Amino acid sequence: MVIPMNAYEILGTVVWFLCVLGVGVVCLFWPRAVRDFGLRTSPRFNPFLGFMKSPSYIWSIRITGLIAFLMVLLASAGLILGRK
Questions:
Q1: 18-44 burial string, b = 16+ CB within 10 Å, else e?
Q2: Is residue 74 part of a domain?
Q3: Which partner from 5, 8, 43, 75 sits 20 to 30 angstroms from 35, CA to CA?
Q4: What does pTM read for this prediction?
C-alpha cells in the first residue's frame, strides 16, 4: 500500500535533498578545499592531523561525496515514486 506524501514531507525532503547534494558536489569535486578548510579550522591538539594531511584522507572525502550522491539518488527515487 502506498501512502502519499503531504506538502510538508515533500518540502522537507527537497530541502534535505539540496543540502546533501551540496555536500556531495563539494566533497566529490573539491576534496582538497575541504581538507584545507579542515586543517585551518582544527584545534592545535588534533590526534587526526597526520591522517588529515595524507592522500587517503582525500579519498575518504571523495567516498563521502559518492555516498551523498547515492543518498540523493535514493531520495529522488522516493520522491518520484511518491512513497514515504
A1: eebbebbebbbeebeebbeeeeeeeee
A2: yes
A3: 75
A4: 0.78
At a CB cut-off of 8 Å and minimum separation 6, what does 65 contact?
23, 24, 25, 26, 27, 28, 29, 31
Q: Is residue 75 part of a domain?
A: yes
| Domain-located, residue 21 | yes
By CB atoms closer than 10 A (0-12, 13-18, 19+), residue 58 is: middle
Task: Report yes or no: 75 and 13 within 8 Å, Cβ to Cβ.
Answer: yes
Asked whether 79 and 10 are in contact (CB, 8 A), the reply is yes
Q: Residue 56 belongs to what domain range?
A: 7-81
Tell me whether residue 12 is in a domain: yes
